[in-house]
Amino acid sequence: MRFSSLLELGKLCEDESMSIGQLMITEQARESEQSSEAVFEQMAGYYGVMKEAVQKGLMDKPNSRSGLTGGDAGRVKAYADHKVPSLGIVAARALSYALAVSEVNASMGRIIATPTAGSCGIIPGVFVSMQERFGWEDELLVHGLFAAGAIGYVIANNSFISGAEGGCQAEVGSAIGMAAGALTEMRGGTPEQAIHAVGLALKNCLGLICDPVAGLVEIPCIVRNGFGAVTALAAADMALAGVTSVIPSDEVIGVMLEVGSNMPERHRETAKGGLAQTPTGRKIMKELDRKGPST
């Protein structure tokens, strides 16, 4: 890639009069030695899987192999459709869609890791709910995925996207930043505004630990995906309104690296600390150990 930072990414977009998504398509085609049409078609396939996962999670209401989670996406969707959600109907649907995809993941269904399986619900939750709201064609959403990919590329190469390395800030936080930046662009924001959205989103996630109960990507991972989708919407709206990240987004990514590097091991996906080691968390682990492997 011709960029290694968000600053360089924004400068390239400005110099070549391209959106982040357009630039990333060009870069990916060059890197893979394929046509732009071929890489676009591949990404379109990924978006199709995301939409399928949303529908599967809502319609089938899958339970996880452990039996610990399942059905919450449907509960939130029903509440949003029949009550008056505090978030408003659109944000509540984004929340429910993110939960749906995460529940499909926990039930061993097919998802797209964005950027990881543990954070797989955030981008689909944001994208599918916004597509429904604004009536967007799939083509725009696929461009949005390329924008998200460019942002994720910078984060991955300058910090972490793995909870085992940097805590949940690296998984859910990165996904929120990717979704926020991409949504800003899809709604007509400039590359500069999209990059500010990334910084605004990541600042709100710094220090978030990875503490999966019983070592499973379920509790609290699934609900964090739901909250993450809502945070991405908020960050995009701030950026579109003209709010800027006073600390440049690249520097925020650097802080995520610093914080993650200094995070205790017990708070980095080991299930040795945090919620995993509460009395209830330990009880759940003992019960699952007693039952043995799921079939």
From TrEMBL:
It is an enzyme of class 4 (lyase). Its EC number is 4.3.1.17. Pathway: Carbohydrate biosynthesis; gluconeogenesis. GO terms for molecular function: L-serine ammonia-lyase activity. It holds the Pfam family SDH_alpha. Its cofactor is [4Fe-4S] cluster. Keywords: 4Fe-4S, Gluconeogenesis, Iron, Iron-sulfur, Lyase, Metal-binding. InterPro entries: Fe-S_L-Ser (IPR051318), Ser_deHydtase-like_asu (IPR005130), Ser_deHydtase_asu (IPR004642). Residues 16-276 form the Serine dehydratase-like alpha subunit domain. The keyword 4Fe-4S applies. The keyword Transferase does not apply. It catalyses: L-serine = pyruvate + NH4(+). Belongs to the iron-sulfur dependent L-serine dehydratase family. NCBIfam families: sda_alpha. This is L-serine dehydratase. It comes from Paenibacillus brevis.
